[in-house]
Structures are given as C-alpha cells and as structure tokens.
Amino acid sequence: MKYRLTAHALTQMQRRGLDRVTVQKVLDAPGQAVEERSGRRALQSRVNFPGGEYLVRVIVDLATEPPSVVTVYRTRHVAKYWRKP
C-alpha cells in the first residue's frame, strides 16, 4: 500500500533519528497493527538500534487517500503499546 508522509512525520523522523528505510519496513510489514482513535492505526514493530530494542510506531490516518503517516516515533516502553495476541 502507498502512504503519504506528512510534513510533521518527516520532521519527527529527523528529530528522532528514524530514517525512511526503517519507517518503510514498518509500513510494509508491521509486527502489529493497533487501532488508535477513529480512523487512525498504529503500525508498529520491534527494531534493534544501538543501545537496545525499541518499538517503532508509525501512526497512519486511514481517512485520506492515500493514507497519511501522521507521526513516527520510537519508544523503549514496548510493554505499554505491544498487544498480546
């Protein structure tokens, strides 16, 4: 599926040290897709970075065509966001 990166998402990628390749990998094959508020979905995967494992979350607005990446971030709080099957 094609996605559009918003200006905010691009800024957050740069600010948080996330490159396009990492974000694209999460978009193409997320470890999980979690419904957020209405019309938004968090695509997330566990990714190893120097210093350990992080959860990379890509928040997508599904109401737009193509879907828009609203923001992107990584967190060490995997247990907070990872959903058990």
Strand order of the largest sheet: 1-5-4-3-2
What's the pLDDT, averaged over the residues?
95
Order of helices and strands: EHHEEEEH
Q: Give the terminus-to-terminus CA distance.
A: 24 Å
Structural class: alpha+beta
Low-confidence runs of at least 5 consecutive residues: none
Figure out the total of helices.
3
How many extended strands? 5
Describe this structure in words.
- The chain is of the alpha+beta class and 85 residues long.
- The chain has one domain.
- 26% of the residues lie in helices and 40% in strands.
- The chain is built from 3 helices and 5 strands, in the order E-H-H-E-E-E-E-H.
- Strands 1-5-4-3-2 form a 5-stranded mixed beta sheet.
- A hairpin with a 4-residue loop joins strand 2 and strand 3.
- The radius of gyration is 12 Å and the shape is globular.
Which key phrases capture this entry?
single chain, alpha+beta, 5 strands
